[in-house]
Structure formats: structure tokens, C-alpha cells
Design a protein that fits this description.
alpha+beta, two-stranded antiparallel sheet, 38% helix, globular
Length: 208
Amino acid sequence: MVEKSPSTAYNLYQDGKLDTVILSAQAAKNLQKQAGYVIRKNNGTTYMQFNTKLAKFKSTKLRQAVSMALDRKALAKTLGGGFTGATTFTAADMTKVDGQDFTQLAQDKTTKQITSYHMTLAQKTFKEALKDLQLKKLSFTLLMTTAQRRLVNTSRVPWKRLLASKSPSRCRACRPSPSLPRWTAAILKPASAAGMLTSLTRFHSWTA
């Protein structure tokens, strides 16, 4: 049985017509103390894709600045519902290598810094990116699905701070487009997720 509305699905669950239901983020926050509430981790990651066919997004510094301007822990807390901040393309707690989580092995000092919240460094890196690109300001449209609206609205606050660090800039949100895709691996192997960024897939012209 498929129900597009989380609220409708939950009502059916309360009426005893469904055995289990996936809650929306807001419902999960409200119902986390209710009997039957369980958090089940899955092998999925929602991430931001940059269209590197556009010259401005070919800048590594620009992409790094956007990443460091996002407080993943605060975002996950705001969304609730068992969300956690992703620091790698592969979902955490899915694969162990010699007793250690793969996502920890996949990171070095640099990647840990880039996927952590550093607004001051993000603004500095952003200014350097604009200088390299010979731009005085930056404007981009962030595409999303209806279901991602709350995620994007929460993310736009730090991104606006970043963009405002160098002349008037804007960040708009609209729908629908796969610029904030979610990938759920079919098997619990890192290659299932990492392989999405290779030339062997139709996503190879974009960079996460």
C-alpha cells in the first residue's frame, strides 16, 4: 500500500490499518516519546550536487566554501526524526572495515575540515573563489522537490551569510529538480554509493 501523505499514513496506522509507517521529520519530533516509535537507520544520503558544466561551480574553493558554511549537526537537530549530518557520500554505520566504520576511514584531515562547520574559513575561501573566478558577486538557484522545502529553508540561513560576505548575492529555491538528490544503496557496500560519482553512471557530469 502506498500513501503519498505522511499524515494520512499515520492516521491509518492509528486506526490499525497499517502495521508500520514512515513519519515525516516534524511528526517524528512530536511523536518520539510515543510507544512504538523506533529509529531505523538506512543506507541513504541526501547531498547537494553542483552543476560543474557551469564555470563557477568548477571552482573547488567555491564548493568547499558552501560545504563549510553548512552546520550539519544543527541542521540534523532542526529536522529531527533521527537525521544525522553526513560527512561522506557513503552513509555511516553501514560498513565496518577491521572493526572501524568505513566513513571514518574514508576521511582525512582535509575532508574532515571541509565537511565541518567553519563559517569564518568558509567566507575566506568564498572570497578567494570569487577572486579566482573574477566575479564580484555570485547568484545561483537551488532546485528542490516539495518534500525538501524544510531542508532547504534551514540550509539557506548560513548560505545567505556566506553569500553576503562579498557584495549583494542571492540564493533562491524552486522546484522540482534533482539538485538535492538522495541515494539509497541497494547493498551495504561503500562502492554502491561511491560508484555514483564515476563516469560509469549518468550522474558523472555533476559533482557532489
